[in-house]
Design a protein that fits this description.
By secondary structure, this protein is mainly alpha-helical. The chain contains 3 helices and no strands. Helix 1 packs antiparallel against helix 2.
Length: 55
């Protein structure tokens, strides 16, 4: 695994978003995944799709 460093403000924002997502009453797993994706953290299986969209 490789370390990724975020600016302090982005780090604290991500932590708050993850904590909030974890309390989602219906689907916390999806809410957490959406919070991670909003921060630009994606699973390997999405790499090809994301790189095509970025090009």
């Amino acid at each position: 695994m490789q370390n990724h460093y975020l600016p302090d403000t982005a780090w604290f924002e991500l932590a708050a978003n993850l904590a909030s997502a974890a309390t989602h009453p219906i689907d916390p797993e999806t809410a957490i995944k959406e919070a991670l994706a909003s921060a630009g953290i994606m699973p390997e299986m999405c790499r090809e799709d994301c790189e095509v969209l970025a090009a």
